[in-house]
Amino acid sequence: MTPNEKKFSDCVATMMRYAAIIGMDKKYLPALESTGEGAYLDIDLSGRLYYVIKERGQELKNESGRDMDEILFQVFKDATFMMATDYEVLNRIAGEDSRRQSFAMQIKLMRTLSEKWGDRAEADIKNTLWHYPYDDNAGIRADYIQTLMKAGMSGADARKEAQQKYPLSKKD
Question: 20 to 30 Å CA-CA from 122: which of 30, 102, 113, 149?
């Protein structure tokens, strides 16, 4: 086994061990070679690891580096997001921004793997929420807009009235 094959094998073994710690189904993990679509791990001749996501022929993500911890952080940041989103769908709370549960679950999963990873995920989420705060009224406001528009109100007027009745959430 070459040093690069060993490095890649160690990375995969660590990824699988981490997935087992949080009970993660393998469907959330990247493939171990490019299939042309989806996420995969790779290593080049110089020993640089890659985590790549392709969709519809477009490369959406290409994280690379020699540090296995950084590559695995990126893998599990995405994988725990998908896992947490699936959890939220199964445990949805009406009238609550779905991100509340999914973000909390993602942070919990990442902290289970590494306190440092949990802190980084939490910081990323806080940054997202700074720009796009929780909006617990989004669903009910959208339904109300549709009701008003079906009753003949213009889209702009319906949005204005709905936002007055169901205001945007304040930053938490």
Answer: 30
Q: Which helix (H) or strand (E) holds 112?
A: helix 98-113
Longest CA–CA separation in the chain, Å: 71
User: Would you say 159 and 147 are in contact if contact means Cβ atoms under 8 Å apart?
Assistant: no
Buried b (16+ CB within 10 A) or exposed e, 156-168: eebbeebeeebee
CB of 123 closer than 8 Å to CB of 153: no
Rounded to two decimals, the pTM is 0.85
Domain boundaries along the sequence of the chain: 3-131, 133-172
Torsion angle, alpha carbons of 38, 41, 45, 47, to 10: 150
Residue-wise pLDDT for 14-62, tens only, equals 999 999 999 999 999 999 988 888 999 999 999 999 999 999 989 999 9
